[in-house]
Fold this protein.
Amino acid sequence: MIKLVAFDLDGTVLNGLGVASAESLRVIREMQSAGISLSTMSGRNVTKSLAPFSGEPGLTDAMHCGAYNGALVVGPIEEGCRRILFEQRVPEETLSDLLTHIRERGYNFIYYACDPHPALGVEERYISDRSSASTDSIVRQVGVEFAFDPGLLDRLRRGDLCPPPKVMILPGENRRDDVFREISDLFKGRLYAARTDMDRVELMHPHVNKRAALEHVASAHGIDIAETLAIGDGDNDLPMILGAGIGLIMQNAPDHVRACANDKRIHLVPAFEEEGFAKAMREYVLT
């Protein structure tokens, strides 16, 4: 019996404008009513992970949220606030070396500011060194407001800003895979790198991923990992999909992600455009 469902957002539950279909919202409400614990698992921050469900306050209040690809996990609202269940930031020495590499290559990048907040659990800001087609795309997709600071690298070097849960490099669509391989080789064992969308490389603490986040949510409720289900469509979803009791891969996932389906514990489900999330939840959870 599935007691916890962890779901990716963009490309799984949300369309390119960050909107969930009426059917997806309906099935999420049904799972909540059935007593199933729910957790978003996304590269987004906490605020933007929960924003698509803001019209359903009873839903968002009860949700867990795994943000920054699992670098930060917060629980549901209890007594007016969300408790941080897990937090892991980029190590200081690694961050210093990464900043040197970013400066040498001239990469456009995003620093994710994440500070404690008594009610929200955390207060978050997106800061980038400059505006670009990629930051414009993120604004359209997530609705976030950027602060642009050409002196961002220097501020981080001086220690004016604390180590973040995530750094995102924006090399552009044509260079993303090359940059991903380069960063993965240079920082092997020191950073967890994930390719997201078509133009982004996300970098977190080496022990961070969505599987670790799933394990923390399950542990908080005394749920065995075998009683969990994870669903997603991206490279960064594979750790939780492969680690959950049941893993589901959307048909709209890249080829190398779909190739992980084995028809035993990891299954392919219909694409996002075919209401794949809702259909999968009805088949594997609400039966």
The first strand starts at residue 4 and ends at 7.
